[in-house]
Amino acid sequence: MIEFESVSKRYPDGTLAVDELDLRAPSGEITVFVGPSGCGKTTSLRMVNRMVEPTSGRILIDGQDTGATNPAQLRRGIGYVIQHAGLFPHRTVVDNVATVPYLLGWNRKKARGHAMELLERVGLDAHLASRYPAQLSGGQQQRVGVARALAADPPVMLMDEPFSAVDPVVRESLQEEFLRLQDELDKTIIFVTHDIDEAVKLGDRVAVFRAGGHLAQFAEPKDLLEHPADEFVAGFVGKDRGYRALSFTPAEGIAIEPEPTVRLGVPIRDARAAASDGWVLVVDDEQRPQGWLDARGSNQDAVSADHLNRAGTVATVTGSLRTVLDAALSSPTGRGVVADAQGRLLGTVQAGPVLARVDQVNGRTRGNPAANSTGGGSGAGSAEAEREGAGQ
Ligand SMILES: Nc1ncnc2c1ncn2[C@@H]1O[C@H](COP(=O)(O)OP(=O)(O)OP(=O)(O)O)[C@@H](O)[C@H]1O
């Protein structure tokens, strides 16, 4: 566990960056620091590995006062990942990842072998190992940054906007893989972002900071969205927090209607006969949805995979209400496809009943302060982090 005990930081120019921060980041969990630009997230993070020294207060890691620990030794137990990865440009990928093992005195073969395993673990192909960072995409560089931070198997990871510099699609896949990795690794993580969506997706707990280094609220994502502590937090989590909260509301219990289906390869007249409004859902032999067929406009003889409309997402009944709503809204027929955990069709749901549930959920949040503005920040302030490099 990482504990902040009345921690403050005043920079020499008088800026109070962090004001009396009290917070506990539990072991094996992801604690996210989120808030607008300049509210003290990075300063708080860097006080953990003593890249910034607190002006007052204490930070303890598993009961050990970091102020009383030699900084170099302290950092050996703390992985650090920053925006743009901060890789060493003149070292190959594998040598970047092996940096800390080399420093720890591992021989070259063992360090490189370990680095190769880590590259695979973060989803990077072995053939990239001999490249230099500039020869990788932004997303690949971030993966290398994560692999390098994991190299000494530190119990604690500090991550400062690690996925901000990549496009939204890459960012989403990095987030998914990060969650999968954390499932296996159980690190104690503090993760800084200015993006509330990223915060509620990744955080087991989320600390919302406001300007002046004040902690506005520290809560689990669902609580934060449903019960923002005040106007500032309500504004920061955004007007659509009711929609976001649906991510935490199970889809179970929503009425699923039976949906007529046909299998791939059957004569088109069977598809026309089955189609209620012209559209029919096509499934494979194991009842897994393959796509929609507009049977009216089709002049083929048999139902073929080439003519399916695959727009629309498939929701899993064990998933959230948000995925069901997404499925209904994205379906070309207006009927969202719902499958069981094995991917077999259960039926469809129209947006109406889902929206009725959305209203219910929003009704529960209606007593909270109105959301006036969406929060967020520029995410600026990373240049200094880049200069600091790996921080190991
Ligand atoms: N070395 C420094 N000297 C003086 N003031 C600083 C220094 N570093 C940061 N600050 C100030 O401290 C405050 C908090 O900065 P910090 O970088 O911790 O915020 P942040 O929430 O991480 O912001 P961002 O999202 O923009 O990265 C800001 O007002 C910033 O200008």
**Annotation, overall tally of beta strands:** 16
Q: What is the CATH topology assignment of the largest domain?
A: Rossmann fold
Oligomer: single chain
Mean pLDDT: 84
Keywords: ATP-binding, Nucleotide-binding, Transport
Family: Belongs to the ABC transporter superfamily.
Enzyme class: translocase
Pfam family, one: ABC_tran
Topology:
Blueprint: E1 2-10, E2 16-25, E3 30-34, H1 41-48, E4 56-61, E5 64-65, H2 71-76, E6 78-82, H3 93-97, H4 99-103, H5 108-121, H6 138-150, E7 156-160, H7 168-185, E8 188-193, H8 196-202, E9 205-210, E10 214-219, H9 221-226, H10 231-237, H11 241-245, E11 261-263, H12 268-274, E12 279-283, E13 289-294, E14 314-316, H13 321-330, E15 335-339, E16 345-350, H14 351-365, H15 383-388
Parallel strand pairs: 3-8, 3-9, 6-7, 7-8, 11-12, 14-15
Antiparallel strand pairs: 1-2, 1-4, 4-5, 9-10, 12-13, 15-16
Helix pairs in contact: 5-6, 13-14
Could you characterize what this model shows?
With 392 residues, the protein is α/β, with parallel strands linked by helices. The protein has helices at residues 41-48, 71-76, 93-97, 99-103, 108-121, 138-150, 168-185, 196-202, 221-226, 231-237, 241-245, 268-274, 321-330, 351-365, 383-388; strands spanning 2-10, 16-25, 30-34, 56-61, 64-65, 78-82, 156-160, 188-193, 205-210, 214-219, 261-263, 279-283, 289-294, 314-316, 335-339, 345-350. It has two domains: 2-238 and 377-388, Rossmann fold; 261-361, CBS-domain, CATH 3.10.580.10. 34% of the residues lie in helices and 22% in strands. The strands form four sheets. A six-stranded mixed β-sheet has the order 6-7-8-3-9-10, with helices on both faces. Strands 2-1-4-5 form a four-stranded antiparallel β-sheet, with helices on one face. Helix 5 (108-121) packs across helix 6 and helix 13 crosses helix 14 (351-365). The chain is globular. The relative contact order is 0.14. Residues 11, 13, 15, 17, 35, 37-43, 194, 377, 379-381 line the site of adenosine-5'-triphosphate. Adenosine-5'-triphosphate binds next to helix 1.
